[in-house]
Design goal:
This protein is of the alpha/beta class. The chain has helices at residues 10-13, 19-28, 32-40, 51-61, 90-98, 125-135, and strands at residues 2-5, 45-48, 70-73, 85-88, 107-110, 115-118. Helix 2 crosses helix 4 and helix 3 crosses helix 6 (125-135).
Length: 137
């Protein structure tokens, strides 16, 4: 699935987003604040793992993109990586990486091993507080 959102799509972006999904993602991803910071600043993120978990994380991250036009590929089946956020299976990630299609500046979120790799801009304490307060909504 391939989508491009702009600021006017905020209502559509949050469809299906509920407290259970936010709680699930908060428990699943240890460094959610770092990933959200990358999202807010428009850095490219690739998320690997099982489809359900990837889609849950993408839905939460889209909450933080209303200030920008965001290109999202929810689940990569071809070879077109989204400008901002792309979700895919680990096997698809391995295939694309072998072909040199993942740039070194991309943040890679592996939901199977719960690890982050690649280039990250360091978030400040504001982002940590933002994550804490958002999880309480």
């Amino acid at each position: 699935m391939y989508q491009i959102h702009d600021v006017g799509d905020q209502k559509e972006k949050n469809t299906g987003l509920n407290q259970n999904r936010i709680d699930k993602v908060s428990k699943m991803v240890k460094d959610l604040d770092k990933i959200i910071f990358q999202t807010i600043t428009g850095n490219q993120i690739v998320i690997t793992g099982n489809r359900e978990n990837v889609m849950d994380l993408i839905a939460v991250l889209e909450m933080f993109t209303s200030h920008q036009i965001t290109e999202v590929v929810n689940w990569l089946e071809g070879n077109k990586i989204g400008k901002n956020i792309t979700g895919m299976s680990l096997s698809k990630f391995d295939e694309i990486s072998e072909n040199g299609r993942i740039d070194s500046f991309v943040l890679i979120v592996n939901l199977s091993s719960y690890k982050l790799s690649g280039t990250m801009v360091r978030p400040d304490r504001f982002i940590k507080k933002l994550v804490e307060r958002t999880s309480r909504l």
